[in-house]
């Protein structure tokens, strides 16, 4: 967190305490022993030292009080030093804290030099660590499992107000102490990049190491939303571009999954530069295995104004229905797409079917076209001819004759259907009832 540069160490100590719990296990082992001399336990001094190195002074003092010689002056002196050790706090400025720290550490040094702990090597070693002795702290490297564990222990007693921008220097020193860069694992490389504020390197290592992009994409997204990366400080160049790239790649991988593709849509929505274009291209590639899935794609596309996706999806589903000889369903999809050419083609198919069979196969659709009837002239004619056919079936000869005349006069009918219209007109021309006027007959 850039806002708490002066108090980075407490966060590091907490992080170390979560991952290195030997002191807690050791304390439980010591306390479970029923001996009158807990200090004789093989883990007693190691556990006490671990608590001190992690800055957990309350636990260290509690363990120290179990020693049978605790009432002696040297143990009382050590207990006093542990109790008085200052720790960083947000209520105290870094400058004020350093004054208290230096005064406390000077007191530790004076007691060590006075030989107060000389009788007990273990206490003297702890005192040397409290005093910030490089020699004593260097010896603790053999006790640590990783370079970053030792780095934090060393910082606690040499530079408790370490700033974020200085952390990379201490990390390099710790790595050198543990064998150099050649010994680093992938996790070590990630942590080194973090200490050096080299986020591109961190992202690169995560992408190369992990099986997918879930973690690096979400990590960078969270950091950006939390304003933890300040572009004005050049923490990372083009941070927005890198964030979007990772989200795009992760979303693309989701879109290729049969059951997770809808989740990918949400990630594209968070990419302001290329998200819309990438989503449009990938939605057109979604396998339309069912009407339900097709309707999902259409709904998603409509919400985002991707009209070309809506049209192409409807056309694909219409062609599938047509391949299955379901012209009615194909027409339904064509009407949803608003594709005039496809609608005209299907209207011709329905008219051709009528000329062969003398009946319509999709009466419910044709009876409820509504405003869709104007999508194409051919569909308009088909809808009106279906209305004429229904009037004729219901015995409304006057209305049917008027509508038939309108269809003939408008010339909307395709040429192959003219004969059908003329045949339909014969009964009304020969009827005893006058259904066509002389003018209409002449026309």
Tell me about this structure.
- The model is unreliable at 1-5 (pLDDT under 50).
- α2 (22-31) runs antiparallel to α3, α10 runs antiparallel to α11 (186-195) and α11 runs antiparallel to α12.
- The N and C termini lie far apart (87 Å).
- The chain is mostly helical and 443 residues long.
- 66% of the residues lie in helices and 0% in strands.
Question: Would you summarize the structure shown here?
Answer:
The chain is mainly α and 443 residues long. It contains 25 helices and no strands.
Order of helices and strands: HHHHHHHHHHHHHHHHHHHHHHHHH
Low-confidence parts, pLDDT < 50 over ≥5 residues?
A: 1-5
Describe the sheet with the most strands.
none
Strand share of the residues?
Answer: under 5%
**What structural category do the secondary elements indicate?**
mainly alpha
Distance between the termini: 87 Å
Tell me the number of helical segments per DSSP (H or I, 4 or more residues long): 25
Report the strand count. 0
Query: What is the typical, i.e. mean, pLDDT?
Result: 87
Task: Summarize the amount of helix as a percent range.
Answer: 55-70%
The gyration radius over C-alpha positions equals: 41 Å
Which word captures the global form? rod-shaped
């Amino acid at each position: 967190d850039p806002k708490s540069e002066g108090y980075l160490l407490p966060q590091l100590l907490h992080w170390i305490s979560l991952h290195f719990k030997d002191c807690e296990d050791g304390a439980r082992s010591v306390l479970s022993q029923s001996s009158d001399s807990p200090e004789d336990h093989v883990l007693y001094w190691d556990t006490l030292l671990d608590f001190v190195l992690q800055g957990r002074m309350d636990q260290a003092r509690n363990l120290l009080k179990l020693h049978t010689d605790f009432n002696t002056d040297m143990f009382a002196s050590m207990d006093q030093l542990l109790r008085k050790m200052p720790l960083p706090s947000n209520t105290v400025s870094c400058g004020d804290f350093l004054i208290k720290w230096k005064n406390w550490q000077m007191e530790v040094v004076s007691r060590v030099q006075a030989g107060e702990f000389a009788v007990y090597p273990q206490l003297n070693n702890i005192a040397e660590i409290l005093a910030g002795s490089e020699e004593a702290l260097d010896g603790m490297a053999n006790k640590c499992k990783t370079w970053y564990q030792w780095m934090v222990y060393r910082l606690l007693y040499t530079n408790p107000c370490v700033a974020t921008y200085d952390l990379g220097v201490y990390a390099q020193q710790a790595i050198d102490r543990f064998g150099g860069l050649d010994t680093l694992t992938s996790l070590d490389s990630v942590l080194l990049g973090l200490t050096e504020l080299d986020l591109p390197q961190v992202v690169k290592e995560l992408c190369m190491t992990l099986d997918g992009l879930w973690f690096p994409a979400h990590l960078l997204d969270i950091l950006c939303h939390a304003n933890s990366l300040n572009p004005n400080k050049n923490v990372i160049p083009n941070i927005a571009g890198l964030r979007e790239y990772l989200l795009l790649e992760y979303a693309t991988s989701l879109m290729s999954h049969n059951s997770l593709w809808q989740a990918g849509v949400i990630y594209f929505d968070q990419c302001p530069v290329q998200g819309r274009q990438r989503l449009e291209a990938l939605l057109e590639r979604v396998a339309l295995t069912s009407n339900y899935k097709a309707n999902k794609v259409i709904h998603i596309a409509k919400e985002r104004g991707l009209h070309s996706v809506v049209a192409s999806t409807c056309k694909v589903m219409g062609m599938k229905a047509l391949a299955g000889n379901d012209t009615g369903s194909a027409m339904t999809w064509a009407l949803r797409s608003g594709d005039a050419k496809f609608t005209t083609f299907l209207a011709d198919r329905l008219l051709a079917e009528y000329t062969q069979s003398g009946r319509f196969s999709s009466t419910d659709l044709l009876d409820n076209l509504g405003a869709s009837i104007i999508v194409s002239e051919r569909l308009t004619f088909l809808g009106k001819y279906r209305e004429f056919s229904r009037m004729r079936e219901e015995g409304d000869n006057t209305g049917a004759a008027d509508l038939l005349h309108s269809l003939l006069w408008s010339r909307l009918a395709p040429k192959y259907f003219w004969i059908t219209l003329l045949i339909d007109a014969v009964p009304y021309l020969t009827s005893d009832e006058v259904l066509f006027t002389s003018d209409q007959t002449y026309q």
